[in-house]
Amino acid sequence: MKRFYLLIFCLLLSNSHVQAQTLSVGILGDGVPGHSFAGPDLDLVNQGDDVNFFLANVTLTAAANGLKFRTNDDWATNWGNTNFPNGQGFLGGANVATPAGTFDIYLHIDANTGNAAYSFQQPGVFPTMGILGDAVVGNGFAGPDLNLVTSDGIVYTAANVSMVSGIFKLRQDDDWTLNWGFPNTGQPSGSQILNNPELGVFSGIMVNDFGGSSVNIDIDITGTSGIFDIVFNRHTGELTLSDSTMSLTDLTNTGVQARFVGKELVVSGLNDVATISGFDLLGRKLFSVQRNLSGNFRESLPMPENQIGILRIESPTFTETLKVANIR
């Protein structure tokens, strides 16, 4: 019996240790009713990665001393800035002055600098996200931004964007307060985000610019059509540009037909052995198999769900890339 209770105690201790590893972020201050600087904190919801936090429909009051963000109900790590509604929260920064109103609050912690980007939005109203720069035809750094579209305020997209080799950045609400670029690794002009040129896909993880932590995104479009579909995740920083001329789920080439029916790839007219490879939009290889495509080939493939993936078919006589929409 003693061993049984000891086992239960160890399991509880282990569970409490695991829970302690989850970071909490809260707001408190004169502008947060019921959550003054003396506490308790009004906690935002951890999105499961310890860097993204969100809380909807928060009522604030007008206060010069406003509020601050802090971790684990402790002042050891706290962020603030005078900017509202968007800002770059610096460690130990100034209080965020608050107006009266109800807001959705978003905070993203930059793992590289330790600072945090914050945003206060009217409920149901998403921030705008745009790209601009020398590489964006008609939308140079002087503006206007080429705005992406969103249905959730997290994933932003644009189709058939004309681009040239050069540099660009992303920014929120047509303003430089919150902007994203490639991590600053010392290169004065940025770094290419091309990681799978044979796929016609440019991708990488962008970071918010805190005091020079990011640089312009440098892109070389040589070998592409110059027309791209763009996907940007504001929470994770994942940015993908894929060549718009790639067929979506269907192609016909020199008598060969390839298409997707549900999760199944169907190929006809290619009497050859081919390598079939699948990638996500960050260019990460998910699988690679070799198949005899003689006759009418049909097989279910593990393409990523609820997003667009890239499929590459290569044989001695045939090479093609397809974009695959596997939406459930």
Descriptive notes:
With 328 residues, the protein is mainly beta. The chain has 3 domains: 7-121, Immunoglobulin-like (Sandwich), CATH 2.60.40; 129-243, Immunoglobulin-like (Sandwich), CATH 2.60.40; 247-326, Immunoglobulin-like. The chain has one helix spanning 2-20; strands at 25-28, 42-43, 45-46, 52-60, 63-71, 74-80, 86-91, 96-98, 101-109, 116-121, 129-132, 146-147, 149-150, 155-162, 166-172, 179-183, 191-192, 194-196, 201-205, 207-208, 214-215, 217-219, 227-233, 238-243, 247-248, 250-253, 256-261, 264-268, 273-279, 285-292, 297-300, 307-315, 318-326. Strands 1, 2, 3, 4, 5, 6, 7, 8, 9 and 10 form a 10-stranded antiparallel β-sheet that branches. Strands 11, 12, 15, 16, 17, 20, 21 and 22 form an 8-stranded mixed β-sheet that branches. It is elongated. Mean pLDDT is 80; it is low at 1-21 and 187-192.
CATH fold descriptor of the largest domain = Immunoglobulin-like
Structural class, by secondary structure, is mainly beta
CATH top level of the largest domain? Mainly Beta
Q: What percent of residues adopt helix (DSSP H or I)?
A: under 10%
Total beta-strand segments: 33
Over the alpha carbons, how many angstroms does the gyration radius reach?
24 Å
Name the overall outline: elongated
Number of domains: 3
Strand content: over 45%
Largest sheet: 10 strands, antiparallel
Low-pLDDT regions: 1-21, 187-192
CATH architectural arrangement of the largest domain:
Sandwich
The end-to-end distance, rounded to whole angstroms, is: 50 Å
The total count of helices amounts to 1
* Mean pLDDT rating: 80
